[in-house]
Structure formats: structure tokens, C-alpha cells
Amino acid sequence: MIEGYLRHGDEVILIGLDGSPSTGVRFTSSKPDWGGRPNRPQDDWEIVPRRGVWIEELEAELAQRGLPPVPATGWALDMGRFDEAGSRRDLEQFLDSRDSASGARGEDLDTP
Fold first, then answer.
1. SS3 per-residue string spanning the chain
2. Per residue in 80-89, pLDDT tens?
3. pLDDT digits over 36-57, tens only?
């Protein structure tokens, strides 16, 4: 589905869940003996600056298909102590930067 949108020239962005071992974009959770099982003890893992497994695989698949990288950011929902205001601010800045980049290229964001 992403491939179709990209090949059609549509803008695609990815918003993952930072801290998630699967969908983390800026951060993922890690613990060597955990192995990703869903029964991890609460707050018993380390947050590391890395992509989650699913995000890594998605990006690798897009690259293998010759598609450009998709701009991505993470919503820090899975990072233990969730800061909704800070996460909302980060997301708004990311989206605003996308709007600015599109406007600089002369694209009309209101056109379907």
C-alpha cells in the first residue's frame, strides 16, 4: 500500500510509537534476555536510540523496492513515563517541518 502511494507521488509519513520494540522510530526498548516476548515486567527494560524491529524491516523493504525513505517520527507513548504535552509538541514540530518543506517545493497541500 505504501509503495502505491509513493509511486503515485503522494507524500507518506510514518508515525511510530517510540519506546516500542517493534514500532519505535527514534527509540526502542531493549533487554538482552527479554527477546521481545509480550510478558515483559513493567519498567524492566532499557530505552535505546534505535529503530524498532518492524520499522527496520519496513525501511529495508522500501529500500529493496527502490523507494525513497519515508520521513518518520515517533509518538513517545511506550517510553515508561509518557509526557503527552512534550510528545504533542514534537509531533506538531515534525508535521510543521513537513508543511514547510512541501511549501518550499511549491506544492499545494490543499490539492487532493
1. CHHHHHHCCCCCCEEEECCCCCCCCCCEEECCCCCCCCCCCCCCCEEECCCCHHHHHHHHHHHHCCCCCCCEEEECCCCCCCCHHHHHHHHHHHHHHHHHHHHHCCCCCCCC
2. 678 889 888 9
3. 666 666 666 788 999 999 999 9
